[in-house]
Amino acid sequence: xxxxxxxxxxxxxxxxxxxxxxxxxxxxxxxxxxxxxxxxxxxxxxxxxxxxxxxxxxxxxxxxxxxxxxxxxxxxxxxxxxxxxxxxxxxxxxxxxxxxxxxxxxxxxxxxxxxxxxxxxxxxxxxxxxxxxxxxxxxxxxxxxxxxxxxxxxxxxxxxxxxxxxxxxxxxxxxxxxxxxxxxxxxxxxxxxxxxxxxxxxxxxxxxxxxxxxxxxxxxxxxxxxxxxxxxxxxxxxxxxxxxxxxxxxxxxxxxx
Length: 257
What we know:
TIM Barrel
């Protein structure tokens, strides 16, 4: 009887995992710092995340720094309301709030909010430390461990400008999807290093359009940032990119529809 129950439990878990993985939207639209612009939500806020989810974006990108006392927080700039994140303790950062009244979210809080749904992926950008490369690696490792702790692996893809940080993510979790942002590596170099793909500025891809086909031939994903005008969106769609990161998700969704 126990073995029958165990088999049932395993099959149920497999079915759930399959459902979770297949339920995410497939429309190429990655909301840059959440869907913030149209409704004037604070960037990287829970409000902008939830708006990206409500729109049905395939992904919502967010940026992560580490405070002086080792707390991972979600914010684009290296400072929050004038306070430098890397040299300020989290408790001090809580003395300021976003314009809509939200406090600065920890990674755990942000992931918990994102896990309430199964349609929009969470595109986790690990910001390079301004202090040292070693700190960038530490942030990368702690990020992967936080995602594991929150049981959020199915929701999360990683991106980073820190090549060393990206390699640390891959080392810490060889199954993680990691895309590189800087634009100074060829598809072949990224494939060799174990990256999932690249996420390059639209200008880089305009100068090196052959990289799109090269990446796809190597099984790498192709994303581009930050694409806000219709002409560039249509060019990337024509070129067959997998994702497009934009401050104008509503516009891109309307073009794709």
